[in-house]
Write a structure and sequence with these properties.
alpha/beta, Oxidized Rhodanese, domain 1, Glutaredoxin, 5-stranded parallel sheet, 4-stranded mixed sheet, 10 helices, elongated
């Protein structure tokens, strides 16, 4: 009879090997490393998986836009060479993760996904400088905070799954807690200048103000019960 220890070691080895083979063609890398990899790759294949509207607002140089949520994603990515590295990004990382997983199943040999997407690209200072104000100005934002009540700012995006999940009870709270707090939801894609100035690089991001000062900050999903506790 074979030794149980040797048998377990063999199974563990097989599992580790298979796991490595599954992920050896994919890397999630920070924006600075993403930029460096593109620079050192001749004729780099760059894939922007956001909507055409997002792409028009800002995109990486020489990036090709194929909407991950479009009906013909698989058909259109066939234009890329599977044997060469492909660089994938979106706004915050959700769609690029799904797209990268799909590219693996399609046989792409080397996939680089940008961690945090365009939001972290901008936060890292990699975007080209621009004097153009997109969305709300800092002055207008400060005016929102002039209140004798607490002010909760919710930075969200339409594609953001946690944002969608929280939207119904945030809307309900606007009425239920109206005497205690003013809740304002701002679409991050429509207020890019403000998002950059506040160094917001993940969605959703909640900022709770009292007397124009941030008293609480939260990134990501939060349950209705926990949020109510913070606001009351």
């Amino acid at each position: 009879m074979k030794s149980p220890i040797l048998y377990l070691f063999f199974i563990s080895f097989l599992f580790s090997a298979c796991k490595g083979q599954t992920n050896n063609n994919y890397q999630l890398i920070a924006p600075t490393d993403f930029a460096a990899k593109i620079k050192e790759t001749p004729n780099a294949q760059i894939l922007d998986v956001r909507t055409p509207e997002e792409y028009a607002g800002q995109h990486l140089e020489k990036a090709i836009n194929i909407n991950w949520n479009g009906p013909d994603f698989v058909e259109k990515v066939a234009q890329f060479d599977k044997k060469k590295p492909i660089f994938v990004y979106c706004l915050g990382g959700g769609r690029s993760k799904e797209a990268s997983n799909k590219l693996q199943t399609l046989g792409f040999e080397t996939i680089y996904e940008m961690q945090g997407g365009i939001m972290k690209w901008n936060a890292a200072g990699l975007a080209k400088p621009s004097d153009k104000v997109i969305g709300m100005t800092s002055e207008a934002y400060q005016n929102l905070l002039q209140s004798d009540k607490k002010v909760l700012i919710d930075f969200y995006a339409e594609w953001c799954a946690p944002c969608k999940k929280m939207a119904p009870y945030l809307k309900k709270m606007e009425t239920d807690l109206a005497s205690q707090v003013t809740i304002i939801r701002l679409n991050a894609e429509e207020h890019k200048t403000l998002v950059a100035e506040l160094k917001i690089n993940e969605l959703p991001t909640f900022l709770l103000y009292e007397n124009k000062e941030v008293k609480w900050k939260h990134i990501g999903f939060i349950s209705e019960e926990d949020l109510r506790k913070k606001l009351q």
